[in-house]
From TrEMBL, chain A:
One of its GO terms (cellular component) is membrane. It comes from Natronoglomus mannanivorans. Potential transporter for phosphate. The chain crosses the membrane at residues 75-97, 130-152, 191-208, 228-246, 258-276, 282-302, 363-386. GO terms for molecular function: phosphate transmembrane transporter activity. Belongs to the inorganic phosphate transporter (PiT) (TC 2.A.20) family. This is Phosphate transporter. It is a multi-pass membrane protein. It is found in: Membrane.
UniProtKB/TrEMBL annotation, chain B:
Pfam families: Usp. Residues 1-141 form the UspA domain. SUPFAM superfamilies: Adenine nucleotide alpha hydrolases-like. This is Universal stress protein. Belongs to the universal stress protein A family.
């Protein structure tokens, strides 16, 4: 009986991990694959390795929070399986409707629902977690906006990543010992840029492992049904499986959102989001990679859009517009109409791209998602009476 | 006699029906196709991509081009001798359409464009345009 329940639980874990693997591989490697810097298979392989590394190290802190700190009793095997079903349901909804439902939030919500139903919810921990969920998007937005407004144009001028024809590296067979040299058309700048993209992708995979491995298995670890190390390996295998299979598709859907923005901007987003996610996982806060990624993207674009000088001017450096406080509220320069083109009726205002109401609507999904999972789990556990 | 018609197009099949309808119903009118770029999406990729572009106008034009090409194709198929005008706006489709609508006598719009997720991020554009438009709106099904 116990074996059957455990088996069902592991199947649910694998489903959750599989889907996490699909979506986070898309985010971590979409830009690099899109730029043609590595193949989808190598991306999945790197993903699996660094997810394992992240889960094995930093991920344990999050595992402790999810399996032991949110509620004061241990999550029984049966309840753990039920919690996993709610996490899976959240992911299913996210996949079917294309809405980003942060998995970490669904997980915490479902466990909190169990806690409410059994009267064992640790309010101190849950408040601590929720307050970080409020701080994180604000932090991502702020970092994105600062970089977008002040630093991005300068970086953009100095940093160019492109993939030239021919392989990146070649073997020099002329010398006595075969030595790797730059491939045809490869410049040192390209080599450097490629290395940066790969390193940041690995970092993002690491943070995905740290934050997401526990989501897939923590409900089964709590009761001792699965040993922590075994659990981490199961989650890694499931995430890797997702990376090798459905990530081919997500790299085009989720990854394409990231490839709508320039590669440099995507790297800034990835670096920021991974750092926030790794740091919070370190202190045991379950957090979603998607949350910090999206807010950094919005911040970058919004910061750039509200900047008073255009990027082209900034690149040429032929502007003396000062970044004084007053300038921040100034209107962006009207685009110059080329000769022979109809006069545009009014200047395009990049600020229109970031309608505050649309952003609020977006953020509200992060409140609705976990609330729904808490309520559903609460209703379920009260009715069924598993604890 | 209707002489100025605005047809917002998002590239969906429904919006193509709207244009086809407008071409038949108002054969003598001056038809303007409006395409909104950089609308909210699941990760805000397209909005941010445009904001970071070196030349916003050029980047937006590039995004809108395929829709405009398709619109001209439809106009040619309909045998309309009147050339259609094209224009684009940034950001939220509803706001962009409402802002433009004042200059026209009628708005012809498809009843719905995208997938469920697009509806979640943007909402039902046609419904909101009907409610807020300063000029009469024809919703094509």
């Amino acid at each position: 009986m116990v074996e059957t329940v455990l088996l069902v639980g592991i199947v649910a874990s694998v489903f959750v991990g599989f889907n996490i693997g699909g979506s986070s591989t898309g985010i971590a490697w979409g830009p690099a694959v899109g730029a043609g810097l590595l193949s989808k298979v190598s991306a999945a392989a790197l993903m699996t390795f660094f997810v394992f590394l992240g889960g094995w190290t930093v991920g344990r802190n999050v595992m402790d929070t999810l399996s032991g700190d949110i509620i004061s009793i241990e999550i029984s095997l049966a309840a753990g399986v039920a919690v996993l079903f709610f996490i899976g349901l959240g992911i299913l909804i996210a996949n079917v409707f294309g809405v980003p439902v942060p998995t970490s939030m669904t997980t915490v919500g479902a466990i909190a629902g169990l806690g409410l139903a059994t009267g064992t919810l640790n309010y101190e921990t849950i408040t601590w977690i929720i307050s970080w969920w409020v701080v994180t998007p604000v932090l991502g937005l702020w970092i994105g906006a600062t970089v977008g407004r002040y630093i991005y144009p300068e970086l953009n001028r100095r940093f160019e990543i492109r993939s030239s024809e021919g392989s990146l590296l070649a073997l020099d067979r002329n010398s006595s010992l075969p030595m790797p040299t730059l491939g045809p058309n490869t410049t040192y700048q390209e080599l450097g840029g490629t290395i940066v993209v790969l390193v940041i992708g690995c970092y993002m995979a690491f943070s995905a492992g740290a934050s997401n491995v526990p989501n897939a298995v923590a409900p089964l670890v709590s009761s001792g049904a699965l040993e922590v190390n075994t659990a981490i390996i199961i989650a890694t295998v499931a995430i890797g499986l997702g990376g090798f299979t459905i990530a081919r598709r997500t790299m085009e859907s989720v990854g394409s959102e990231l490839s709508d923005i320039p590669l440099l901007a995507a790297l800034i987003v990835m670096l920021t989001a991974s750092s926030i996610t790794t740091a919070l996982s370190w202190i045991g806060i379950p957090i979603s990679l998607v949350m910090s990624s999206v807010m950094t993207i919005v911040g970058l674009g919004w910061g750039r859009a509200t900047r008073p000088i255009t990027a082209r001017e900034a690149i040429r450096g032929d502007t003396d517009a000062e970044l004084a406080m007053g300038a921040l509220t100034a209107e962006p320069d009207a685009p110059v109409t080329k000769i022979g083109e109809a006069e545009s009726e009014e200047a395009l205002d990049a600020g229109d791209l970031f309608n505050p109401r649309a952003i609020v609507k977006y953020v509200s999904m992060w409140i609705i998602g976990p609330t729904m999972s808490t309520l559903l789990a609460y209703g379920f556990f009260v009715t069924v009476g598993i604890s | 006699m209707i002489s100025r018609v605005l047809v917002p197009m998002d590239g969906s099949e429904m919006s193509e029906h709207a244009l086809e309808y407008a071409l038949t119903a108002y054969p003598d009118a001056e038809i303007t196709v409006l395409h909104v770029v950089g609308e909210p999406s699941s990760m805000w990729g397209s909005a941010t991509g445009l904001a970071l572009a070196d030349d916003l106008e050029e980047a937006a034009q590039e995004h809108a081009q395929s829709t405009f090409d398709r619109a001209r194709e439809l106009a040619a198929d309909a045998g309309s001798d009147a050339t259609i005008e094209t224009t684009f706006e940034l950001g939220h489709p509803v706001r962009a359409i409402i802002n433009r609508a004042d200059d026209y006598e009628t708005v012809v719009i498809g009843s719905h464009g995208g997938t469920i997720s697009e509806r979640l991020f943007v909402g039902n554009v046609a419904e909101k345009v009907v409610r807020r438009s300063p000029v009469p709106v024809v919703v094509v099904r």
